[in-house]
Amino acid sequence: MKKLVLLPFFIVYAVVVLAQNGLNFDGVNDVVTTGYVGVSGNNPRTIEAWIKTTGNYNGGTGGTQGVLVDWGQMTPNGSRSTFNISTNNAIRFEVGGSGVNGVTAVNDGLWHHVAAVYDPLATPNTKLYVDGVLDVSGNITIAVNTVQIINVKLGERCDGINRFNGTMDEVRVWNVARTATQIQNSMNNQLCSVTDPTLKLYFPFNQGTANGANATINTVTDFSPTAANGNLTNFGLNGSTSNWTVGKTLGQGFFSSAITAYSCGVYTWPLNNQTYTTNGYFKAVVPSLQGCDSIVTLHHFILPKYLITTTQTACESYQWASNGQTYTNSGIYFDSLLSINGCDSVRKLVLTIKQKTYSTSTVSTCDHDYLWSLNGQVYQQSGTYIDTITNAVGCDSIATLNLTLSTLDTTVTNASGMLTASQANAVYQWVNCFDFLPIPNATNQDFVPAVNGQYAVIIQHDNCTDTSQCIQYASVGINEQVNSTEFIATPNPSSGEIQLHFNSPFTGTLRLIDLNGKVLETYNLEARDNLLIETHQFATGIVLLNILNADKNSTQRIMIK
Predict the structure, then answer these.
(1) Whose CA, among 136, 240, 337, 403, lies 20 to 30 Å from 349?
(2) Omega prior to 76 cis, within 30 of 0
(3) Angstrom distance (rounded) from CA 468 to CA 423
(4) How many whole angstroms separate alpha carbon 128 and alpha carbon 180?
(5) In sequence order, which residues have a C-beta less than 8 Å from that of residue 407 and are 6 or more positions away?
């Protein structure tokens, strides 16, 4: 497809970015080295920053210090100035050989404003603030003599270790001891005045595209009068880590913005009415209504007057910035731009479109959890899970897992002399833990043992089988033990009637007795092999079945439901 666009004087593509960005450090090797030597000797200083981190910096739990700002050298003691996160994941200010620890953990993944103030004339001489509130005050107990050997660094100590893992924003270094009021009044706003001579370093980090491709933006601008810009080392500068990313939302101070303009050779910037005829970066300062300057950077490109070829590979679709068109098929596409001053440019796009893939897995298991080999995740609940990986052609592969965990509840409760399996609507078999043989007729959810001992239940439900832990049962008194050779009473528990089976014809007395010793019912039997007892008239609970004659006295416990 060809597109001819007639522009009267020049071609301009402009994108304005008003960013409140921050800089993310990966905790591995990211560091910013500035051009500022730092506050020296025993002079007062204040270090401020907004930070967001979830790192572990507590040595007692396997973590290491995470340095925010540092300068000087390691030896002798007292010759460096270090603001970091350390014990209990709270902030710390140290000089080598002595330091003051905070008490409030700042690694909860939320934004926190942190500040360290050293005032050699004050007692105590060190104060630490978290979110504008004094966290702790204490004394540096050795002589402070910070040397100007290693310039100010962000993200690691001067000996190259103890790296910070998280995002920083609004880093400020002052050569005065700021008060709590000053810190509170300015912490939630970007600074309007960048001419204050006591402000020695100021990085608002409002650069780049948050989480975007920022490979060329490897210098952070210092907006203090020192103008000691910092160099980014080892940053990936692409994605959500080790890159320019979303910073702390603050009130308006001054904003930096960027405009990219393409022309046929001559461009007049409406912002300042200046005309530019060369490629390059140009700046203008515009006061805002709030009285804070807006620093605008113009990146001027002069378009070449020949064929420009772009080769792109994309997944599913590709939007060509040249003409705003979206393409879903591979092919070669052209776009022609023509102006009356002879700035002709033909753009050629060589495009390859690749596709996503989709897959679905359905898994049913009796286990309590399931390890999905696709992503190494362990799931402990039934549900539908979706994960995205990269397929063989470099596009997304969308995998869906339909998971059913048919886990059984194998807990058993022992209450009022009755064992109850917590799992409902199942098949049950109670066993004696002595030999794990099935107990005859013990196939209900509830079970009242006739003999003290340890018991368990085998549960079957939804094609799954599991066995409970053995539970100690000690509710049968010494005079209530069952003579199992005399008679059998079923079912137990009973919900309406009890069937007694005697091992031999029984002549004697049968009594139903409650646990208080009251005789509920008496039956006189003559050579009986079995007996059916209706239990509807009795209250629910445990009763004793006792048979008695001249040579027999046997008792069983029955639960009436």
Answers:
(1) 240
(2) yes
(3) 10
(4) 10
(5) 366, 367, 368, 464
Question: What distance in Å separates the CA atoms of residue 274 and residue 267, rounded to the nearest whole number?
Answer: 8
Can you tell me the distance from the alpha carbon of 195 to that of 202, in angstroms, rounded to the nearest whole number? 11
For the chain, what is the mean pLDDT? 85
Which pLDDT band, with edges at 50, 70 and 90, does 450 fall under?
Answer: low
Under DSSP, the state recorded for 61 is G
Pair 283, 271: CB distance under 8 Å:
no
298: Cβ contacts below 8 Å, ≥ 6 apart: 258, 259, 260, 261, 269, 271, 276, 281, 282, 283, 284
66 CB contacts (<8 Å, ≥6 apart)?
27, 53, 55, 57, 84, 85, 86, 162, 163, 164, 165, 166
Percent of the chain with pLDDT over 90: 43
Using the predicted structure, report yes or no on whether residue 4 has a pLDDT greater than 50. Answer: no
pTM of the shown model: 0.47
CA separation, residue 109 to residues 15, 106, 165, 167, 508 (Å): 32, 8, 11, 10, 79
Dihedral angle over CA of 516, 517, 523, 526, nearest 10? 140
The span from the CA of 359 to the CA of 364, in Å, is 17
Q: Coil, strand or helix: which one is 550?
A: coil
Residue 123's pLDDT band (boundaries 50, 70, 90)?
very high
CB 353 within 8 A of CB 393: no
* Terminal Cα-to-Cα distance of the chain (whole angstroms): 84
Distance CA 73, CA 148 (A): 8
Which residues pair with residue 400 across a beta bridge? 360, 386
Residue 287's pLDDT band (cuts 50, 70, 90): low
> According to the per-residue pLDDT averaged within each range, which of 107-116, 274-283, 330-339 is highest?
107-116
Read off the amino acid at residue 81.
Answer: S
DSSP state of 539: P
Distance CA 391, CA 355 (A): 9
Write the pLDDT tens digit of every residue in 226-271.
999 999 999 999 999 999 999 999 876 555 667 888 877 788 988 8
Full DSSP string of 80-146: EEEEEE-GGG-EEEE-SS-EEE--S---SSS-EEEEEEE-TTSSS-EEEEETTEEEEEE---S---B
* Percentage helix, strand, coil for the chain under 3-state DSSP, each rounded to 5: 0, 50, 50
**Structure-block tokens of residue 259:** 């405009």
Beta-carbon neighbour count of residue 277 at 10 Å?
10
Looking at residue 224, its amino acid is S
Q: Locate tokens 């290491």: which residue?
A: 64
